[in-house]
Description:
By secondary structure, the chain is mainly α.
Amino acid sequence: MLVPATMAALAVLICFGGNYLTGQSMMERPLVVGLVTGLLLGDMKTGILLGASLEALFLGNVNISGVIAAEPVTATAMATTFAIVSNIDQKAAMTLAVPIGMLAAFVVMFLKNVFMNIFAPMVDKAAAENNQRALVGLHYGTWIIYYLIIAMISFIGILVGSGPVNSFVENIPEPLMNGLSAAGGLLPAVGFAMLMKLLWSNKLAVFYLLGFVLTAYLQLPAVAVAVLGVIICVLVSQRDLELDAVSRGANQVATTYDSKEAEEEDFFA
Protein backbone atom coordinates (compact mmCIF):
# COMPACT_ATOMS: atom_id res chain seq x y z
CA MET A 1 0.00 0.00 0.00
CA LEU A 2 3.04 2.25 -0.17
CA VAL A 3 2.27 3.32 -3.75
CA PRO A 4 -1.38 4.39 -3.14
CA ALA A 5 -0.31 6.26 0.01
CA THR A 6 2.40 8.08 -1.94
CA MET A 7 -0.01 8.95 -4.74
CA ALA A 8 -2.57 10.32 -2.27
CA ALA A 9 0.09 12.46 -0.59
CA LEU A 10 1.31 13.67 -3.99
CA ALA A 11 -2.25 14.62 -4.98
CA VAL A 12 -2.60 16.69 -1.79
CA LEU A 13 0.76 18.37 -2.39
CA ILE A 14 -0.09 19.19 -6.02
CA CYS A 15 -3.61 20.47 -5.40
CA PHE A 16 -3.37 22.05 -1.95
CA GLY A 17 0.13 23.44 -2.27
CA GLY A 18 -0.23 24.31 -5.94
CA ASN A 19 -3.41 26.27 -5.25
CA TYR A 20 -1.62 28.83 -3.07
CA LEU A 21 1.54 28.79 -5.17
CA THR A 22 -0.50 29.75 -8.26
CA GLY A 23 -2.53 32.47 -6.55
CA GLN A 24 -5.74 30.73 -5.46
CA SER A 25 -6.42 28.99 -8.77
CA MET A 26 -9.08 26.72 -7.20
CA MET A 27 -6.88 23.64 -7.51
CA GLU A 28 -7.89 22.67 -3.99
CA ARG A 29 -11.53 22.05 -4.93
CA PRO A 30 -12.67 18.41 -4.50
CA LEU A 31 -13.53 18.20 -8.20
CA VAL A 32 -9.89 18.80 -9.12
CA VAL A 33 -8.47 16.78 -6.22
CA GLY A 34 -10.60 13.77 -7.14
CA LEU A 35 -9.49 14.01 -10.76
CA VAL A 36 -5.79 14.24 -9.86
CA THR A 37 -6.01 11.42 -7.30
CA GLY A 38 -7.89 9.17 -9.71
CA LEU A 39 -5.39 9.95 -12.45
CA LEU A 40 -2.43 9.07 -10.23
CA LEU A 41 -4.10 5.83 -9.08
CA GLY A 42 -5.16 4.78 -12.57
CA ASP A 43 -8.95 5.14 -12.07
CA MET A 44 -9.81 8.62 -13.30
CA LYS A 45 -13.53 7.83 -13.67
CA THR A 46 -13.95 7.02 -9.98
CA GLY A 47 -11.89 10.07 -9.06
CA ILE A 48 -14.05 12.42 -11.14
CA LEU A 49 -17.34 10.95 -9.89
CA LEU A 50 -16.31 11.00 -6.24
CA GLY A 51 -14.73 14.44 -6.59
CA ALA A 52 -17.93 15.83 -8.10
CA SER A 53 -20.00 14.35 -5.27
CA LEU A 54 -17.66 15.75 -2.62
CA GLU A 55 -17.66 19.11 -4.40
CA ALA A 56 -21.38 19.32 -3.70
CA LEU A 57 -20.74 18.35 -0.08
CA PHE A 58 -18.00 20.93 0.54
CA LEU A 59 -19.53 23.64 -1.66
CA GLY A 60 -20.56 25.84 1.26
CA ASN A 61 -17.60 24.91 3.43
CA VAL A 62 -16.34 28.20 4.92
CA ASN A 63 -14.52 29.03 8.15
CA ILE A 64 -16.65 31.66 9.89
CA SER A 65 -15.56 33.17 13.23
CA GLY A 66 -14.65 30.30 15.56
CA VAL A 67 -16.34 27.61 13.48
CA ILE A 68 -13.79 25.26 11.88
CA ALA A 69 -14.95 23.79 8.58
CA ALA A 70 -13.74 20.45 7.29
CA GLU A 71 -10.61 20.48 5.12
CA PRO A 72 -11.71 19.22 1.68
CA VAL A 73 -8.36 18.39 0.01
CA THR A 74 -7.18 15.70 2.44
CA ALA A 75 -10.73 14.37 2.78
CA THR A 76 -11.17 14.03 -0.98
CA ALA A 77 -7.74 12.48 -1.58
CA MET A 78 -8.15 9.87 1.16
CA ALA A 79 -11.79 9.07 0.36
CA THR A 80 -10.96 8.66 -3.33
CA THR A 81 -7.97 6.45 -2.53
CA PHE A 82 -10.01 4.24 -0.21
CA ALA A 83 -12.77 3.99 -2.83
CA ILE A 84 -10.31 2.91 -5.53
CA VAL A 85 -7.96 0.69 -3.52
CA SER A 86 -10.44 -0.86 -1.08
CA ASN A 87 -13.37 -1.06 -3.54
CA ILE A 88 -15.64 0.85 -1.18
CA ASP A 89 -18.94 2.08 -2.58
CA GLN A 90 -18.63 5.73 -3.58
CA LYS A 91 -21.49 6.90 -1.39
CA ALA A 92 -20.04 5.01 1.57
CA ALA A 93 -16.64 6.58 0.87
CA MET A 94 -18.27 10.01 1.10
CA THR A 95 -19.20 9.31 4.72
CA LEU A 96 -15.50 8.71 5.44
CA ALA A 97 -14.63 12.11 4.00
CA VAL A 98 -16.43 14.10 6.71
CA PRO A 99 -14.48 12.86 9.80
CA ILE A 100 -11.24 12.81 7.80
CA GLY A 101 -11.84 16.41 6.73
CA MET A 102 -12.57 17.54 10.29
CA LEU A 103 -9.40 15.87 11.63
CA ALA A 104 -7.31 17.45 8.87
CA ALA A 105 -8.91 20.84 9.57
CA PHE A 106 -7.69 20.78 13.18
CA VAL A 107 -4.19 19.82 12.03
CA VAL A 108 -4.16 22.65 9.47
CA MET A 109 -5.41 25.09 12.10
CA PHE A 110 -2.60 24.02 14.47
CA LEU A 111 -0.01 24.43 11.73
CA LYS A 112 -1.25 27.91 10.79
CA ASN A 113 -1.75 29.32 14.27
CA VAL A 114 1.00 27.59 16.25
CA PHE A 115 3.70 25.73 14.36
CA MET A 116 4.33 28.14 11.48
CA ASN A 117 4.60 31.09 13.88
CA ILE A 118 8.12 29.96 14.80
CA PHE A 119 9.25 31.36 11.43
CA ALA A 120 7.67 34.80 12.02
CA PRO A 121 10.72 36.30 13.82
CA MET A 122 12.95 35.11 10.97
CA VAL A 123 10.70 36.83 8.43
CA ASP A 124 10.61 40.05 10.47
CA LYS A 125 14.39 40.07 10.80
CA ALA A 126 14.93 39.46 7.08
CA ALA A 127 12.43 42.22 6.21
CA ALA A 128 14.07 44.69 8.61
CA GLU A 129 17.47 43.98 7.05
CA ASN A 130 16.02 44.12 3.51
CA ASN A 131 17.45 40.66 2.92
CA GLN A 132 15.44 39.67 -0.13
CA ARG A 133 17.25 36.38 -0.64
CA ALA A 134 16.35 35.29 2.89
CA LEU A 135 12.72 36.36 2.38
CA VAL A 136 12.43 34.32 -0.81
CA GLY A 137 14.06 31.33 0.87
CA LEU A 138 11.72 31.56 3.86
CA HIS A 139 8.71 31.95 1.57
CA TYR A 140 9.36 28.79 -0.42
CA GLY A 141 10.96 26.92 2.48
CA THR A 142 7.94 27.37 4.75
CA TRP A 143 5.69 26.43 1.80
CA ILE A 144 7.51 23.12 1.44
CA ILE A 145 7.44 22.39 5.19
CA TYR A 146 3.77 23.34 5.59
CA TYR A 147 2.39 21.34 2.68
CA LEU A 148 4.68 18.37 3.20
CA ILE A 149 3.27 18.01 6.71
CA ILE A 150 -0.28 18.20 5.37
CA ALA A 151 0.53 15.67 2.64
CA MET A 152 1.95 13.32 5.26
CA ILE A 153 -1.50 13.14 6.86
CA SER A 154 -2.83 11.42 3.75
CA PHE A 155 0.30 9.28 3.41
CA ILE A 156 0.15 7.96 6.96
CA GLY A 157 -3.64 7.65 6.91
CA ILE A 158 -3.64 5.51 3.76
CA LEU A 159 -0.57 3.49 4.77
CA VAL A 160 -1.79 2.70 8.27
CA GLY A 161 -5.51 2.76 7.63
CA SER A 162 -5.76 0.74 4.43
CA GLY A 163 -5.51 -2.62 6.19
CA PRO A 164 -8.11 -1.88 8.86
CA VAL A 165 -10.37 -0.30 6.27
CA ASN A 166 -10.16 -3.38 4.05
CA SER A 167 -10.96 -5.67 6.99
CA PHE A 168 -13.73 -3.37 8.15
CA VAL A 169 -15.33 -3.24 4.71
CA GLU A 170 -15.21 -7.00 4.29
CA ASN A 171 -17.03 -7.50 7.61
CA ILE A 172 -19.63 -4.74 7.24
CA PRO A 173 -23.16 -6.18 7.22
CA GLU A 174 -25.10 -5.45 4.08
CA PRO A 175 -27.84 -3.41 5.87
CA LEU A 176 -25.17 -1.17 7.43
CA MET A 177 -23.45 -0.66 4.06
CA ASN A 178 -26.82 0.25 2.54
CA GLY A 179 -27.30 2.76 5.34
CA LEU A 180 -23.89 4.31 4.70
CA SER A 181 -24.69 4.54 0.99
CA ALA A 182 -28.00 6.25 1.75
CA ALA A 183 -26.31 8.70 4.12
CA GLY A 184 -23.66 9.44 1.51
CA GLY A 185 -26.41 10.21 -1.00
CA LEU A 186 -27.83 12.82 1.37
CA LEU A 187 -24.53 14.60 2.03
CA PRO A 188 -24.56 16.74 -1.17
CA ALA A 189 -27.89 18.17 -0.02
CA VAL A 190 -26.17 19.25 3.20
CA GLY A 191 -23.50 21.07 1.18
CA PHE A 192 -26.08 22.91 -0.89
CA ALA A 193 -28.03 23.79 2.28
CA MET A 194 -24.88 25.33 3.81
CA LEU A 195 -24.31 27.36 0.66
CA MET A 196 -27.92 28.52 0.54
CA LYS A 197 -27.71 29.65 4.16
CA LEU A 198 -24.85 31.95 3.20
CA LEU A 199 -26.35 33.27 -0.05
CA TRP A 200 -30.09 33.24 0.64
CA SER A 201 -31.96 36.40 -0.29
CA ASN A 202 -35.67 37.04 -0.72
CA LYS A 203 -34.93 38.67 -4.07
CA LEU A 204 -33.16 35.52 -5.29
CA ALA A 205 -35.74 33.08 -3.89
CA VAL A 206 -37.69 33.10 -7.16
CA PHE A 207 -34.67 31.71 -9.02
CA TYR A 208 -34.30 28.93 -6.46
CA LEU A 209 -37.97 28.01 -6.91
CA LEU A 210 -37.53 28.09 -10.69
CA GLY A 211 -34.60 25.68 -10.48
CA PHE A 212 -36.59 23.39 -8.19
CA VAL A 213 -39.51 23.28 -10.63
CA LEU A 214 -37.23 22.64 -13.61
CA THR A 215 -35.50 19.77 -11.80
CA ALA A 216 -38.37 18.17 -9.88
CA TYR A 217 -41.24 18.50 -12.33
CA LEU A 218 -39.68 18.98 -15.77
CA GLN A 219 -36.91 16.44 -15.02
CA LEU A 220 -34.19 18.61 -16.55
CA PRO A 221 -30.59 17.53 -15.81
CA ALA A 222 -28.34 19.68 -13.66
CA VAL A 223 -26.30 20.80 -16.68
CA ALA A 224 -29.40 22.14 -18.47
CA VAL A 225 -30.51 24.01 -15.32
CA ALA A 226 -27.02 25.48 -14.96
CA VAL A 227 -27.04 26.69 -18.58
CA LEU A 228 -30.44 28.30 -18.05
CA GLY A 229 -29.05 29.95 -14.93
CA VAL A 230 -26.15 31.42 -16.92
CA ILE A 231 -28.59 32.74 -19.55
CA ILE A 232 -30.72 34.37 -16.85
CA CYS A 233 -27.60 35.94 -15.28
CA VAL A 234 -26.57 37.44 -18.63
CA LEU A 235 -30.06 38.81 -19.29
CA VAL A 236 -30.34 40.32 -15.80
CA SER A 237 -26.86 41.87 -16.12
CA GLN A 238 -27.75 43.43 -19.48
CA ARG A 239 -30.98 44.82 -18.07
CA ASP A 240 -29.16 46.30 -15.07
CA LEU A 241 -26.62 47.94 -17.37
CA GLU A 242 -29.39 49.47 -19.49
CA LEU A 243 -31.25 50.75 -16.43
CA ASP A 244 -28.01 52.18 -15.06
CA ALA A 245 -27.33 53.97 -18.35
CA VAL A 246 -30.87 55.41 -18.42
CA SER A 247 -30.55 56.51 -14.80
CA ARG A 248 -27.23 58.24 -15.50
CA GLY A 249 -28.72 60.00 -18.54
CA ALA A 250 -31.70 61.21 -16.54
CA ASN A 251 -29.45 62.48 -13.77
CA GLN A 252 -27.26 64.29 -16.28
CA VAL A 253 -30.28 65.98 -17.90
CA ALA A 254 -31.61 67.00 -14.48
CA THR A 255 -28.22 68.39 -13.50
CA THR A 256 -27.96 70.39 -16.75
CA TYR A 257 -31.48 71.78 -16.29
CA ASP A 258 -30.75 72.80 -12.71
CA SER A 259 -27.52 74.50 -13.73
CA LYS A 260 -29.32 76.50 -16.47
CA GLU A 261 -31.96 77.62 -13.99
CA ALA A 262 -29.26 78.68 -11.57
CA GLU A 263 -27.51 80.69 -14.33
CA GLU A 264 -30.75 82.46 -15.27
CA GLU A 265 -31.48 83.34 -11.66
CA ASP A 266 -27.97 84.70 -11.24
CA PHE A 267 -28.33 86.75 -14.46
CA PHE A 268 -31.64 88.36 -13.55
CA ALA A 269 -30.56 88.87 -9.97
